Amino acid sequence: MTRRTPRRSIAVSASALAVAIGLMTAACGTAATSASGSAPGATITLSFLSYNYGTPDLGGQGTQELINAFEAANPTIKIKPQGVPVADALTEAQTETAAGDPPDVAQIGWSKMAAAYRALPVTAVQDIPTAAQWGAATVGMSQPLLRAVEANGKVVAMPYTISTPTLFYNATLFEKAGLNPADPPATVAEAQRDGLAIAKTGGSGVYFDIADAAKSDFLTQSIIDANGGSEISPSGQPNVDQPAAVAALAAMRELTTSGAQPAVSEADAIAAFDAGKLGMLVTSTAVLAGIESAAQGKFDLRTAAMPGFAGKPAHTTFSGAGLVVLAKDKAHQQAAWQFIKFLTSAEGFTIITSKIGYLPLRPAIVTDPRYLGAYFRKDPRIGPALKQLDEVTPYAFFSGAQAAQAVATLQDDAVQPIVFAGASPASTLTGVTRQIQSMLSQ
Amino acid sequence: MSVVTPVTDGTAPRPGLVRPRPRPRRLFTRRSFTKHGAGGGWPFLVPFLASLLIWVYGPAAATVVLSFLRWNLTSGPPAFAGLTNYRALFADPNFLPAAWQTLLYAAGIIPLGVALPLWLAIALWKRPGRAAFTYRCLLFTPVMLAPVATAISWQFALNPLQGVLHALCDAVGLPTPDVLGDPGTALWGLDLITAGKVIGLNVLLFGAALAAVDPRTVEAARLDGATEGQVTRHVLVPQLRRTAVLLTMLAAVYAGQWSFTNISVLTQGGPVNRTDNVYYLIYVYGFDYFDIGRAAAASVLVVAALGVLLVAGGLLRRRRDARA
Amino acid sequence: MPAPDRRSAFPARLRALGTPASSLVTRPLLRRSLPPQSGGRGAPFDSQGMARAGWHLALAASAAFLLAPTVLAVLASLKPAGDLYDANPLPLHPTLDSYRVAIADFPVVRLLADTVAVAAGVTILQLIVATLAAYALVEGGARAGRLALAAGTVAVLVPAQALIIPQFLLVTHLGWQNTFAGLIVPQLSGCAVPLLLLRQQVRAIPASLTEAATLDGANSWQALWHVVLPVMRPALGAVAILVFAGTWNEYLWPLIAAPGGTPGTIQTGLALFLNTEGANPGPLLAAATLATLPVLAAYGCAARQITNAFMHSGIE
């Protein structure tokens, strides 16, 4: 090794060290900036934690548009957005709260909402405006949904980016298998029959995204609800060992054992559907935008309601996220209310649906030419999911501090093994119920 | 004082090669540093010990304390919980299997992460030149690719319905294995993906150790008629033993942690909890469930177990050295 | 007779060279007319050529296996969204759409700069601390050395996940959240590994060097700076690369310590692309490629130095 290189690398290292030290001192000097400090009467800055912000196309642009539109209409309020991976939204809100600087408004996934209520300094959204203001703001929103999201009789977290389960299906594969694309399956048994037909032509039949990567039980609840059962009792205890739940999961299991459903992970299934190899995919409407862009020019993508069970009304629950207000002082809470009111207005939902891909929670705007009229005429594929809002049931939570772990246990130790690994439904569910009961009682 | 004579090309002689037994303190004796005093080394150790104290041992002590508390970081002050967290860990049906799986991660990464780099490094050393240099560069490249991107690429490739693996199996006529979805193979699949990052670095490290091997030993063995395999096994490998032991120890200890990104992106501990390891569980307890006490208790148990293994390893080595 | 002589001479010769030869005692040697490696003047051409071909095959296969995910990622980033999930890894209709999306929403340049700053900062700090400690291992008394080594070895065993929460609490207490200080300084917890790696190299420094310096009247610091450091430079280069690479890939700590995104690292930035409700792999892979290219370019320019650093480092 020549002498030159060592001297050069020492010089490089020395300057890098100087830069690093300079950066550190500069950063130390400006550390701990308060996001929500403001002079009275001047601009209020709201910190907004969102898992859609900063993501490429799926939500980033839409969220930025919402923020820009709001700031244009409300010059005294500035939004300071912060992006976070979806799985870490609650974690992030919690660590920031622990650090003494929680975000003023946070978008929290609904499955984590009960934990958020317990762990974060939440002020119920309904409590901030007067009753009249609240009524005026929410009059056009889906009332069944608003009732479904209530906790202790009032709306604590405002539904924001909400989705329901949908059946996505590949009409091209349907035709190839000799099925009628205008007649998608309405029950799980029909889905099995259609799935087997498609599997015979070389593709994969149907996939229920019931054991997803985020360990969410939203589809589990929807399927069990559709069979007339419930995953969680009103007191927050597990109900999955009851016959209705056992039968529902047994039906899911039979999809796999019969060969209509491939026993793969959610990511693999979505990839296969996007490539046109999977006939039917039952998952949240939130993936619609991604699937649409993948299907463009390759196959005919259609949607329908989630297949239920014969003779039983199809109640589904919902997924997605709501907005919680963590701001402590009145001025910021009022500003947060203005922001939330805008985000859930007709204009807000127009952007949310057309740009981000979630449901418009004001059903009337899909036929209103000022808002989503033209969009919906061109692409009515969110129709079935939207209709399910009329029959929506509340998303249920386990009680107690171990609720999140209970959900993960249910998904990992019951749903996944039963549906995809052929475990026996009755005995597995009984065992897991006991496990969850002891977990919740700690 | 020293029986070592410097080799003429300027590199220091390898202790493993030319030392007599038993080994005296060859290079530095107290006598040569009485000017600075036997305690002259302490000031130089202060930054090191302080760093460890503040950022390792202090937090470790805090973790021990936290393991006896019940706390979720934000709501209210922590409450004393005694041994509840430890009892809950042993009652958790996932914890002990995860511990066992951690050992499997460690065992699985050694063939691919240590033995293969050793073999590759020796192969590169035997034929130095431009080709060897190119291969070394290529082997190092995956180290710098973002772990998330690597994980996603592997996910695409291993898709049993329509990834590259599926295409290959279809071409040959075999059914496609669901590597990451089958409880029997998921862990090994993750180990394979994790090893990819380690191989490049270890090839370089073994290469560094090989650079200090005295070529005369290899010449002598070849002149005696040893085959290449025998040269490798009986001449080169023994001289790399210390590096190999160090890298094996590092790989075994860190395998579980290195797999963290891959587990979190690809399997989330599944299927059927078969790719969980204790490090992932600690993260899940702490940052998914915010059960700080239980995460701390799991950490304490992991460190205790590693400590036991370390002591056992040391005792074993001492007994073997004494016997030899 | 030559054969018995050879069989008994070989183990004896190796023992004289200090290599443990007990495993050789009962192992018969295969007789070959000439050593296969040296010049090959008399060896048959086939075995030479085949050996070389076999060598290339093994190394090329290993390189291909390791590089496969990288190559797949780059190829996939050039595919249009509809083709992304095709089994064929080659982009049949290559576009830069994913790159357009990635650049628009992903501040590559800033994140790269931030990550370089953090990795460089951690590398420099860890090296300084470890070098000083390694020097102390040989300069100071045996007790100091043993303590440092023991403390370092035990520190290696403590898992990062175990320490993260108390480290996070400490960093918050210091007000270092979302600052470079919070990202860099706590990663000093990993300074034990460089020490373990540098240890052998420092021991191999002949006493005559430092003694000469001492006779000239140098104190410990000057001996370190003028005598020990130049000799250790290759090893320092090698260890620096290791630490830099490790810090570059670090995900967990930046996620916890700097969630705000400024300063952010590449790894946490890329994670934003992984939205479960509709993962967008095309732009993710494009962003990852953009993030890797400058690093690969730098590595390509410095590859010879890096490899030489490892070759001559004398790390054992």
User: How many domain regions of chain A?
Assistant: 2
Under CATH, the topology of the largest domain in chain A can be stated as: D-Maltodextrin-Binding Protein, domain 2
CATH topology of the largest domain in chain B: MetI-like fold
Given helix and strand content, the structural type of chain A is alpha/beta
Summarize the main sheet of chain B: 2 strands, antiparallel
- Radius of gyration of chain B using CA atoms only: 25 Å
Query: Which two protein chains have the largest interface (Cβ within 8 Å of the partner's Cβ), and how many residues from each?
Result: B-C, 134 and 135 residues
Q: What is the arithmetic mean of pLDDT of chain A?
A: 85
Total DSSP E strands of chain B: 2
What's the CATH architecture of the largest domain in chain A? 3-Layer(aba) Sandwich
Low-confidence stretches of chain A: 1-39
Run of helices and strands of chain A: HEHEHEHHHEEHHEHHHEHEEHHHHHH
CATH superfamily of the largest domain in chain A: Periplasmic binding protein-like II
CATH class of the largest domain in chain B: Mainly Alpha
Number of strands of chain A: 9
Poorly predicted regions of chain B = 1-16, 23-39
Shape of chain B: globular
Structural class of chain B: mainly alpha
User: Please, how many helices of chain A?
Assistant: 18
Q: Considering the protein shown, what is the CATH homologous superfamily of the largest domain in chain B?
A: MetI-like
General description of the model:
The complex is a heterotrimer of chains A (442), B (324) and C (316). With 442 residues, chain A is an alpha/beta fold. Chain A contains 18 helices and 9 strands. In chain A, the strands form 2 sheets. In chain A, strands 2-1-3-9-4 form a 5-stranded mixed sheet. A 4-stranded mixed sheet of chain A has the order 6-7-5-8. Chain A is globular. Chain B folds into 2 domains: 47-85 and 291-319, no CATH class; 94-275, Orthogonal Bundle (MetI-like fold), CATH 1.10.3720.10. In chain B, a hairpin with an 8-residue loop joins β1 and β2. In chain B, α2 (42-66) crosses α14, α6 crosses α12 (260-267) and α9 (215-223) packs antiparallel against α10 (228-239). The model of chain C is unreliable at 1-44 (pLDDT under 50). Helix content of chain C is 69%, strand content 0%. Chain C is an all-alpha fold and 316 residues long. Chain C has helices at 2-16, 45-77, 97-105, 108-139, 142-157, 160-174, 180-184, 192-203, 207-215, 220-248, 252-257, 266-271, 281-311. The two termini of chain C are 41 Å apart. Chain C has a domain at 106-272: MetI-like (MetI-like fold, Orthogonal Bundle), CATH 1.10.3720.10. Chains B and C meet through α1, α2, α4, α5 and α6 of B and α1, α2, α4, α5 and α6 of C.
